[in-house]
Amino acid sequence: GIQVEQSPPDLILQEGANSTLRCNFSDSVNNLQWFHQNPWGQLINLFYIPSGTKQNGRLSATTVATERYSLLYISSSQTTDSGVYFCAVNLVQGAQKLVFGQGTRLTINP
Amino acid sequence: KAGVTQTPRYLIKTRGQQVTLSCSPISGHRSVSWYQQTPGQGLQFLFEYFSETQRNKGNFPGRFSGRQFSNSRSEMNVSTLELGDSALYLCASSRSGQGTEAFFGQGTRLTVV
Hints:
Largest sheet of chain B: 7 strands, mixed
Order of helices and strands of chain A: EEEEEEEEEEE
Distance between the termini of chain A: 40 Å
Helix content of chain A: under 10%
Distance between the termini of chain B: 37 Å
Oligomer: heterodimer
Number of helices of chain B: 0
Number of helices of chain A: 0
Number of strands of chain A: 11
Radius of gyration of chain A: 13 Å
C-alpha cells in the first residue's frame, strides 16, 4: 500500500523561529491534507492541497504532486503552534480513505 | 455551521463488552469515515460509508462494524472488546468522499479495562 513518511519526527524550536515540515508519499494521490492535532485529540484542518501552494496567515503549504511530496511552513512560531502535525493522503478514486503519516511533534519553547 | 459531532467523548468499558459510538456529520455531507488512533499504530482507517453503503473497509477484524442512516449519521460498533481496542476513535465527514476535504470530530476516547 501507499507509504506516507513525515519528517522530522520531532522538532523543538524557540518562539519566533521558522519551521518546515515535510511529507513524502509513494504513489499518486487525489487529495492531500495537513492537520494539527490539538491537545484534546481533535484534528484541525490546516490545508487541503492536492497540488500547488496555499497560504493562511503564518502558515503556508506546497504540494509537488509529480515529485510526491508536500511541505508545511510555519513562520514566526508561537507556543500555541505546539502539537502534532499530520499529513494525510487519499488515493482511492470514488471513495474516502485517508492514509496518515506518523506525524511531526512540534514543540515551541517561549 | 455545526461541525462534526461525536458522542460520547469518553467511555470506559470492560473487556468482553460491546460499545457503540456515534457520529453526526456536517450538514450536507454524505460521506462518513472512521479512524482509530493508538500510540503504537498511529491513525488507521476503519471504514467509510456513503449513502448508507459501506464503500471501503480497512484491515480490522469483523468485531468492528458500522452503519450509516438516511440522515448520514453514522455509528460504529465494537463487539467483544479487547484491551488493545483502547484508542481514540475519530470520525470524519466530507461532502462526497472521492478525495474531497475531510473534517474531523473531536473523537471518542475509549478505554477498555
